[in-house]
Amino acid sequence: MTRCAVFGTGSWGTAFAMILADAGCEVVLWGRRPELAEAIDRTKTNPDYLPDLRLPDSVRATSDPAEALAGADFAVLVVPSQTLRANLAAWAPLIEPQTVLVSLMKGIELGTVKRMSEVIQEVAGVGPERVAVVSGPNLAPEIANRQPAASVVACVDESVAQRFQKACHTPYFRPYTNTDVVGCELGGAVKNVIGLAVGMADGMGLGDNTKATLITRGLAETTRLGLALGADPHTFAGLAGMGDLVATCSSPLSRNHTFGTNLGRGMTLDQTIAATKQTAEGVKSCESVLDLARRTGVEMPIVQAVVDVVHGGRPTQEVLAGLMARSAKAERR
Ligand SMILES: NC(=O)c1ccc[n+]([C@@H]2O[C@H](COP(=O)([O-])OP(=O)(O)OC[C@H]3O[C@@H](n4cnc5c(N)ncnc54)[C@H](O)[C@@H]3O)[C@@H](O)[C@H]2O)c1
Ligand SMILES: O=P(O)(O)OC[C@H](O)CO
């Protein structure tokens, strides 16, 4: 039987543990708080993140990383992106040679501007053929209800992606494989930033033309960055690109979208942070994505606008007016 360790008992880690168990895997969830891990192990529910979900009996939970990793075919990493490096440094010595590391995270590391798969390779000392990523339109509360959804499993070694595809394929969760790790990770990280921008437009009371414009031009920015970094442009028309962008930018379940909506309604940054109980990756990754774009020589005006609001304290109205005042240009340049 395929054995999976899932590191992170937040909403996506918990929902993904359910997927893996439904697909027939033996699953051990690792949580950093012993009392929560013990409660999940005993009650098969996660009261803090998805209280209505009853996990399959085959899901166990522990706060001991060695116990989670023993004999694991896959170690699924799903902690907030900016905490990955420090967490993985502690787990790395416990990872066995057969274990493939799978990132479910959608962020870019601040300072290094590395994608999560790059951080994993560096910290765990493994090659790219032992690292896969999963990215797509996967809002955890919908998945926890076993609503149909699809996603992408990407690895430079397609046979590894196929092995994990099989490990997480269920009647309600349909994973596709891809070898474009760069494109899939950029799609996931940048859509959070565009989700913030669309949320702001929603909060300002703006309509569908404005939101469609932000989504489409947001995808154009993402594709531009991806091309400069060696991604396949087709990836951005797929589930990890447009698919995830549409889900995030249209759903009130998206934490990034909701964060933007609160700012657009006029809440201050501090009020918005206080109202946000879960991880809205775009709040930090907007800065690292902009940093990556600058280092790559790529223009990302919507990402810049989000940084100006979230970290520069500029009013949303003023920043939107600035975007509209940019000089006229051809659509495809
Ligand atoms: N929730 C979703 O719908 C969803 C879907 C796809 C991808 N993701 C991605 O998955 C990643 C995790 O998101 P989530 O939704 O599970 O977040 P969450 O906010 O629901 O949970 C975060 C988890 O990380 C833990 N955590 C916080 N700080 C930590 C630290 N310093 N060290 C270790 N653990 C820490 C929390 O206790 C919690 O268990 C993000 O990159 C997110 O973009 C989320
Ligand atoms: O809630 P968000 O904004 O982190 O989005 C969750 C998923 O990434 C949607 O695919």
From TrEMBL:
Keywords: Cytoplasm, Lipid biosynthesis, Lipid metabolism, NAD, NADP, Nucleotide-binding, Oxidoreductase, Phospholipid biosynthesis, Phospholipid metabolism. The active site is at 191 (proton acceptor). Residues 180-320 form the Glycerol-3-phosphate dehydrogenase NAD-dependent C-terminal domain. Belongs to the NAD-dependent glycerol-3-phosphate dehydrogenase family. The keyword NADP applies. This is Glycerol-3-phosphate dehydrogenase [NAD(P)+]. NCBIfam families: PRK00094.1-2, PRK00094.1-4. GO terms for molecular function: glycerol-3-phosphate dehydrogenase [NAD(P)+] activity. Pathway: Membrane lipid metabolism; glycerophospholipid metabolism. It is found in: Cytoplasm. Catalyzes the reduction of the glycolytic intermediate dihydroxyacetone phosphate (DHAP) to sn-glycerol 3-phosphate (G3P), the key precursor for phospholipid synthesis. NADPH binds at residues 11-12, 32-33, 49, 106, 140, 255, 281. It catalyses: sn-glycerol 3-phosphate + NAD(+) = dihydroxyacetone phosphate + NADH + H(+); sn-glycerol 3-phosphate + NADP(+) = dihydroxyacetone phosphate + NADPH + H(+). Sn-glycerol 3-phosphate binds at residues 106, 136, 191, 244, 254-256. Pfam families: NAD_Gly3P_dh_C, NAD_Gly3P_dh_N. Residues 5-160 form the Glycerol-3-phosphate dehydrogenase NAD-dependent N-terminal domain. It is an enzyme of class 1 (oxidoreductase). PANTHER family: GLYCEROL-3-PHOSPHATE DEHYDROGENASE (PTHR11728), GLYCEROL-3-PHOSPHATE DEHYDROGENASE [NAD(+)] 2, CHLOROPLASTIC (PTHR11728:SF1). HAMAP family: NAD_Glyc3P_dehydrog. InterPro entries: 6-PGluconate_DH-like_C_sf, 6PGD_dom2, G3P_DH_NAD-dep, G3P_DH_NAD-dep_C, G3P_DH_NAD-dep_N, NAD(P)-bd_dom_sf. Its EC number is 1.1.1.94. The gene is gpsA. It comes from Kitasatospora paranensis.
